[in-house]
Write a structure and sequence with these properties.
Length: 502
């Protein structure tokens, strides 16, 4: 064995015969996450450029509805199309959509284009990553998953770092309007590498345990959901994913307003603070006004300062463009730090925990730390605290927790991977967005009705969210406990056989 192969085996845990497959899946996930992290900061900055953050609960509810619709189409096709052809078709559709949206945004699509882009960017990735991971799950056994998925998932984390870094560079360059085109290249590469790995796979799915689950005929979406619900182990995973979305969406609701306001204040101080009659709150809310109202305010400001209306309109457009670029750079830098924290959690924490600690403990780390984060929000919320929480919770979500979740899937059958997993990673996760949106809108209604202060409204939302997260902790524990039981039973019965590919 060459020195490079030995080094790769030591780092990845791959044995002879596994190294090529592990490397290709690692690179495939890396390219997928580069593609996504070129899009994610752009999605957030474009939305905040055109809309007030208070609109996010409505948008998330709409995203969830669209996700249900897209997953229904995918689920219907999954019954008729061979699995790898289905993945190729899904990725081809995503690439075409990116091309169309890239041109629309680039040539002045306005608010409608931004809304469509936000919906697309919030829906497509869940389908893309779920189907790619389904292919990867299909290539490895339970034992291989525990040994290799920490390293394979590291590709995602490194991809998020690289994508965030590239996004920040593009945001401050003359190519900022070409971001979607760059993301297409990496998305196509991700598909290529995983399909290449699948060609070298030796049919690991045939060595999966045969599950004694109730047989239910496939039908409409709700019958599919019922079929998922009667399987306790898969149901626990699905509810864990759903409640994870409640937590991450709640963090978005708390953080987006703080980020937008603080960065807008910085740009206000650069462009408008020196003008007589300029008011930060009025200028900040100007993006929510009609075009005629914007013109009236800028005309009045121009008159007070002896400037032309055209000059003030140009200054306001510069303010908006600089704010969008700064916001995109802020998210890019935050996601980059998130990625480095994810690398640490996978290389150090995961490599230590996965082989030695039960999955019920590994899968429950994120809920515990999320509860701590929301308690911290109740004490103070500023830009630094927001950034720290996004980095820590995000790194655990996309690295340690995601790897643990994918290990749980290795104990399932092919039907779960290609029939139920897209449903779990799509509608079930988006169901969590809806729950969080309903909670947020309900709290806003209560705050208006009872004339609560902004601080009291925030604390009420945090208290309700924390109670939901305690339920999340319960389901992560149940899913991990059941996996540990199945693993012990499988190893005792030796039903997996020797999966050493030497």
């Amino acid at each position: 064995m060459h020195l490079v192969e030995k080094l790769f085996s030591w780092i990845s845990g791959a044995k002879e015969g596994e190294r090529g497959r592990v490397f290709l899946t690692f690179i495939g996930l890396l390219c997928l996450l580069v593609s996504y992290y070129l899009i994610k900061p752009l999605r957030n900055s474009k939305f905040l450029e055109e809309f007030d953050p208070s609109k996010l609960p409505f948008v998330y509810a709409g995203v969830a509805a669209l996700s249900f619709f897209v997953t229904k189409i995918f689920s219907t096709l999954a019954k008729r199309v061979e699995k790898y052809r289905l993945v190729v078709g899904a990725y081809t559709t995503i690439i075409i959509a990116k091309l169309l949206l890239g041109n629309w945004l680039r040539f002045g699509g306005g608010k409608i284009a931004v809304v469509c882009f936000y919906f697309f960017a919030s829906v497509y990735f869940l389908l893309a990553v779920a189907t790619l991971w389904a292919c990867i799950n299909d290539m490895f056994t339970v034992e291989q998953g525990e040994r290799l998925f920490g390293f394979v998932a590291l590709g995602s984390t490194i991809g998020s770092i690289a994508g965030s870094k590239i996004s920040g560079i593009i945001a401050n360059s003359e190519y900022r309007e070409h971001t979607l085109y760059f993301s297409i290249i990496f998305l196509a590469a991700a598909l290529f590498f995983v399909l290449l790995a699948a060609r070298g796979s030796s049919g690991q799915s045939s060595r999966r345990p045969k599950k004694k689950e109730p047989e239910i005929e496939r039908g409409d979406f709700w019958s599919e959901l019922r079929a998922l619900a009667v399987r306790p182990y898969i149901r626990s995973i699905a509810l864990s994913v759903c409640l994870l979305a409640v937590a991450t969406t709640a963090i978005e609701f708390v953080s987006q307003g703080v980020i937008d306001r603080e960065l807008a204040r910085e740009q206000y101080n650069i462009h408008f603070a020196q003008l007589q009659g300029a008011d930060y709150e009025t200028l900040y809310k100007l993006k929510t006004k009609s075009e005629s109202q914007q013109t009236d305010y800028l005309a009045d400001l121009a008159g007070q300062n002896g400037r032309s209306v055209q000059e003030l309109q140009s200054l306001y457009e510069t303010y908006r463009k600089d704010l969008e670029a700064q916001t995109r750079s802020f998210f890019s830098k935050t996601y980059e730090w998130q990625g480095w924290a994810g690398v640490l959690s996978l290389l150090v924490v995961a490599r230590f925990l996965f082989p030695r600690v039960g999955m019920r403990y590994c899968f429950s780390i994120l809920p515990v730390l999320s509860i701590v984060a929301f308690c911290l929000f109740g004490v103070t919320v500023d830009l630094f605290i927001i950034q720290v929480v996004i980095v820590i919770v995000g790194s655990l979500n996309y690295a340690l927790n995601n790897a643990a979740k994918e290990i749980l899937y290795t104990a399932t059958d092919e039907e779960t991977l290609f029939r139920f997993k897209p449903m779990i990673e799509g509608p079930c996760m988006r169901g969590g967005d809806v729950i969080s949106s309903i909670l947020k809108l309900s709290v806003q209604f209560i705050a208006v009705t009872l004339a609560l202060s902004a601080g009291a409204e925030l604390n009420l939302f945090l208290a309700i969210t924390i109670s939901v997260l305690l339920v999340w902790l319960r389901f992560t524990w149940l899913a991990g406990k059941e996996y540990d039981r199945q693993r012990k039973e499988a190893l005792d019965l030796d039903i997996y056989g020797d999966d050493d590919d030497d």
